[in-house]
Every structure is written in structure tokens, then in C-alpha cells.
Amino acid sequence: MQGTGPLLITGGSGYLGRHLGLCAARYAEAHPELGCEIVATCREHPERVTVPRMRSLDVSDAEAVRALVHELAPVALVHTAAANPGRDESLMEAVNVEGSRHVAEAARDVGARLVHLSSDVVHDGKKGKPYVEEDPPTAASGYGGSKARAEGAVAAAHPGAAIVRVSLLYDAAEMDRGTGGFAERLGAGEPVRLFSDVERQPISLDSTADALLALAFEFTDYSGVLNAGGRQVMSREAFGRRMLEWWQVPGRERVEAVKAADLPGPPPLDLRLDCTRAEALLGMTFPGVDEVLETARRG
Q1: If you count DSSP H runs as helices and E runs as strands, how many of each does the chain have, helices first?
Q2: Does some domain include residue 138?
Q3: Percent of the chain beyond pLDDT 90?
Q4: Largest Cα–Cα distance of the chain, in whole Å?
Q5: How far apart are the C-alpha atoms of 269 and 236, rounded to whole Å?
Q6: What is the C-alpha separation between 40 and 21, in angstroms, rounded?
Q7: What is the CATH number of the domain that holds 212?
Q8: CA distance 36 to 286
Q9: Helices (DSSP H) in 46-198: which residue ranges?
Q10: Which of 75, 97, 141, 261 is the most exposed place for a label (fewest CB within 10 A)?
Q11: Which residues are catalytic?
Q12: Cα–Cα distance between 286 and 251 in angstroms, integer?
């Protein structure tokens, strides 16, 4: 178990960061011996941050990152801040790659445990079987490439960091960004076409937060890549339909199934992750979507 000191969460106003802040507060309460205050940073939307202590931070600003991390001297830092897919590539480079480098260098300098959030899209989906941690990145998209370069930057700057590759994130209590986009398009009468041949392993916010906190405070000797995806492999279409049904989104019957493989320059088709190492190391099971939703339904 890590010693006393604050936990610093970057990206505290984001989908995962908000949930992680709440889970971290509960974790700290359950482990008073840590004496752990939770501090979250954000670049925008400070009103969304879920912990009392918030600091503004643009991770692309190297001096600002260095100054804040040196001031707080956190015992652990969980880096979730990122520019999402679809953003300008120069922004993804500045935030995802250089921002991650700045965070890793500052964490190293103060001796903080670093847990860095990465993604399954660092792979091109052409392996034909689940990816293991030793599989090198082969990204096929601008966003995936930025996350792959971020992994390299973090590993070089802070060799002791844990780099967690996750699949699609979702929650039974707050709609995820992808489902929100589908709902908006359906509400506007626009078509929604989902890929029936793209395979992922969606993982809940609860499972993700539990894994990140365990790596931050308990399994501090682990360094390098660790895969974290739910046990249920689902097509993008099946997952999209399941979440639209869960949220009772009007017009969901209009969703169409299409084949990504039929498109020029298709997205990665098979992004299955072998999560055996993470479940064994952390003593956790990452339940699939149907199990998570059924548990939530039962209350």
C-alpha cells in the first residue's frame, strides 16, 4: 500500500475522471491510513468535477504541469486527460502525446506512482485473436496513433508507470459519449449505422476505476502495459443497441447494421483483449455488459 499523500487525477471533468473522483473518495475513506486527499484537474468544465479540490490545468503546457505536480507532490497520479477521437490531430498530438509526456516527467521527478490510461485502438485489429500486453501498437487511426505515441512517451519518461489499455467505457447510471451521439442523431432524424463486424470488449466505469485505483495504491510494483476489457465480446452494433435500449432512446428501432469491412480504409475490426494478466494480478473480474446492466436493473 502506498504511503501518505494526495492522489492527483487529470481529466477530472471527463466521463471517466468524474467517476474516478467519486470512487477515489470512497477508496480513501475506506483506507484512512493513506491520509489521501483527492485532487482533480481539468482544462474545461470545472463544474463537472466531482471532488472538492479542483485545479485548472492544460496538460499540453509543460511548465504548468511541472509547477502543479511539484507543488502538490502527489503520492500517486492517474492520468485520464485526453483529446477524444474526432478532434483536430494537432490537438490530439499536443494533449495526448506531449501532455502525457509532461505528466510522466513531472510524476517521475517527484517520485509519484503513475497510472496512465490508454486504449485498445492502439492496435489495428488485424491479429485475428485477442491482443496480449506484449503486442506492440499498430494503430490505424489518428486517435489510435496519438495514444500509441503517448504510451511510448510515458514509458520513456517514467519506466515505472502502469499503462492501462481499456476498451469502450460505459456506465449504467450515466450515458456514454458514443451512445449520446447516437441518441442525438436519432433525435434529429438522422441515420445511425453501426458496425456488425467490429468486435470490442466494453468495460464499465466501475471496473475501470477499481483497476486504476488498485494499480495506484496496491500493485505499485507493476510497470508496463496491462489490458482491461469486459469479459463479454460484443460487436459495435450489439453494444450500441444494448445501450440505446437501456436508456430507452426513442427511434432506436431505426438503427441499421453495416459491415465496416465493406468500407474503404475500415476501422480496426477485431480489438479483443486478453485480460488474463489484469484479472489475476488485481484479483478482479471484469464483468460483461449484460451482467453489469442486469446487476444495475436489480438495484
Answers
A1: 10, 13
A2: yes
A3: 93
A4: 56
A5: 10
A6: 7
A7: 3.40.50.720
A8: 26
A9: 62-72, 89-92, 100-110, 142-157, 177-187
A10: 261
A11: 143
A12: 31
Structural domain includes residue 257 = no
Residue 280, number of CB atoms within 10 A of its CB: 9
* pLDDT tens-place string over residues 105-150: 999 999 999 999 999 999 999 999 999 999 999 998 899 999 999 9
77 contacts 39 by C-beta, under 8 angstroms = no
- Residue bearing cell 450500441: 240
Cell of 250: 426513442
Locus of grid cell 511541472: 66
- In 112-270, which ranges are continuous DSSP H helix? 142-157, 177-187, 205-217, 236-246
Provide the residue range defining the domain that includes 137.
7-172+203-231+272-286
Q: Which three cell numbers stand for residue 116?
A: 496512465
pLDDT tens digits, 189-217: 999 999 999 999 999 999 999 999 999 99
Instruction: Please tell me the number of Cα atoms within 13 Å of 15 on its side-chain side.
Output: 20
Half-sphere exposure of 181 (CA within 13 A, CB side): 8
Number of compact structural domains in the chain: 1
